[in-house]
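Suppose a colleague, Dr. K., hands you the sequence of a protein chain of 168 amino acids and asks what its three-dimensional shape might be. Before reaching for any lab equipment, you can write down a predicted structure in token form. Begin with the sequence itself:
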Amino acid sequence: MADKRLLRTQTSNNQVRYGEKHHPPIKAIFPGNVFRNEATDAKHETTFMQLEGLYIDKNVNVGHLFWTLDYFFKKIYGDNIKIRFRPHHFPYTEPSFEVDVEFRGKWFELLGSGMVHPKVIENMGIDPNEYSGFAFGLGIDRLVMLKYNIEDIRHFHAGDLRFLKQFK
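The predicted structure, expressed as tokens, is then:
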């Protein structure tokens, strides 16, 4: 019989667990290693550190999500960073967006985001008619790649001490 266990592919499961134990307003960040079955290349890796954010309160809307992510990226990369939001589909947010930043003249996808689906809020034991919220998830490795002009994500796990020592 085949082993049915699976390594965590995202950190989203933390959102409902946290929401079950806390009352709004909820402002939470969930870091964790995740594991994906995908081909590796300069921008994709099978194992990486993910960071999820969750905000739930009364009268939260898409404008709050856009402002928060815009502020976040400007604090990391400076006021001149160019950001775009593209409509996308994620199963637990509606509407959903992928967020890209301009890097070396090209758009680079950094995260997925969206308004928390009312059913997810309800599963937390919170009334979705009274509360709404947004969530986002991003790979920390990609944030660091852009910040320090690193061309290949595979350097993080290669074990080359010369790469690591440059960040003293």
